[in-house]
Amino acid sequence: MKKLVFLFSILLATTAIAQEATMKKVGPPEGKAMVGDVYGSGVSANAEKTAITPKKLDQKLKKSAKLENVVVKGKVTEVCEKKGCWMTVETENNEKFFVKMKNYAFFVPTALVGKNVILEGSAETKVTTVNELKHYAEDAKKTQSEIDAITKPQEEISFMASGIKVVH
Fold first, then answer.
1. Can you tell me the distance from the alpha carbon of 129 to that of 57, in angstroms, rounded to the nearest whole number?
2. Helix (H) or strand (E) run with residue 17 in it
3. Interatomic CA distance for residues 83 and 110, integer angstroms
4. Which of 21, 25, 72, 88 is geometrically suited to a Cys-Cys bond with 96, CB 3.0 to 4.6 A?
């Protein structure tokens, strides 16, 4: 009887752990993305004071192929609905740039859409392949016709965020 109780306990514990692991893998993290919330390794204390606009980032990237330790302020327009592993940020002239999380080390909630953020990390201009663009469109739950309409690579600013902070 003790062996039966022991086996049942192990089975129950294993099932609980498996369910918990499965639940953690589904969707972006929970969160309301309130002012002051930080994602990733954090944002330096003076980041808000030194943040540049996406327009200024674009100007700097025309002079240098890659920028390290750059801080940008912008408005989040889209977050990966599958995991929260990427997002887009809008510029003053309604252009958008793509943001990934450094080393895939953290994810952001979809509640970040519409919020102003400070991004700390590195930036470069790169060409995103058709396959990558289609993958991101699938993550964003675009329609099949929208995905099929992607036929050309796209040159864009790519930002690798080490930290993100929600601001006013």
1. 22
2. helix 2-25
3. 9
4. 88
